Fold:
Amino acid sequence: AWKASSSLQKSDFSLNEILYLESLGKIKEILHVSVSVETCVMQRINALEDEFKILRDYLMDTSAQEYTDTHPKLKHLFLQIKHVMGRAACVIPSFIDNDVAEDTVRQLDLDARVLLEEFKVIKQEARDIYDSILPKSQRTKFPTTNELGFVDFVIQNVKQLLHSKDDFIALLWHQIEMVHDHILSMRGDFIEIAKHPREHQDLKDPWTRFKDVVYHIDYVVDSFLIKDQPLWYHKLGLFYAIEDIKIISREVSDIKD
Structure:
């Protein structure tokens, strides 16, 4: 299914994420010294920075352009990303070049809101593409015995990869590290429910979904190791998994509160 195509050149997919992240860092420095800036504005700028990092780490791999002929939605996703990056290229420098005034901060906040909404659309589109490649029904076959043990097994396997000196592993090292940290963080929330499920019925559904995510991560990592798909495919899979963990984490926090 992953037949290569040369319909999009790498030059058409300019990646200026480093410039954007550095510029966002400058904006944060500028806002920090302005006592008039509201906390919500800073939160949105921080969120914007996180979204750029997601694009950089998972969705902006130029190798994926080779497969746009067989996956038209992939081409549309890249066009969406280019559109957002183009908008950011106008928004970010214009703020840095102006004095910090109430009007410019207000405009920055409005622009940040728009960009964050566009990031939501892009991430959902990326998830839909992955669902079309690997349906959810094939990602939810978590072993029913010793569930916590399997979670620990996957954590240990991922941890071992992080200590590998293999140059091939280095291609996905940062993404694997993030996945490891997210699984480990969520594991602590589910230790009690795994041991005493009847006493934590309100966490049963999040726990089930978390197990499915761990199973999915195990699949993506194994698939990556046997090199049966393009690198971008594995990045997309890990992106999907981390987004799911974030959603589950928010739900668990709401339930515990």
Remarks:
- The chain has nine helices and no strands.
